[in-house]
Amino acid sequence: MWMAGGWDWRWCRPRGMHSLRAKLTLVNVALLALGIVAATAVSLMGMRHYLTASVDSSLTSSRDSL
């Protein structure tokens, strides 16, 4: 059916589809948030290892110079 704002698809899909769409949207948002948290954690761990190695290298060179 054509309405003023565009197509009205309510006549061709079951009522339960809207709640399924809402659930899938929430799952997608949750997975996106989980991915962002995981990427941040991996980035922070990488930075920690880099800084630890940098400090270790600096301390080793200081010890060798003494």
What features would you highlight for this structure?
6% strand; two-stranded antiparallel sheet; mainly alpha; rod-shaped
Description:
A two-stranded antiparallel ribbon has the order 1-2. The mean pLDDT is 83. With 66 residues, the protein is mainly α. The chain has 1 helix and 2 strands. The longest helix is centred in the middle third of the chain and has 50 residues, at 16-65. The radius of gyration is 27 Å and the shape is rod-shaped. It has one helix at residues 16-65, and strands spanning 2-3, 6-7. Strand 1 (2-3) and strand 2 form a beta hairpin.
Q: What's the quick description here?
A:
With 66 residues, this protein is mainly α. Helix content is 76%, strand content 6%.
Overall pLDDT score: 83
Helix/strand order, N-terminal first = EEH
Helix content: over 70%
- Helix- and strand-based class? mainly alpha
Q: How far apart are the termini?
A: 85 Å
- Extract low-pLDDT stretches: none
What is the number of strand segments? 2
Backbone CA Rg: 27 Å
| DSSP summary: helix tally | 1
Q: Looking at the structure, what is the overall shape?
A: rod-shaped
- Provide the spatial order of strands within the biggest beta sheet: 1-2
Which assembly state applies to the chains in this document?
single chain
Largest sheet: 2 strands, antiparallel
Query: Beta-strand percentage?
Result: 5-15%
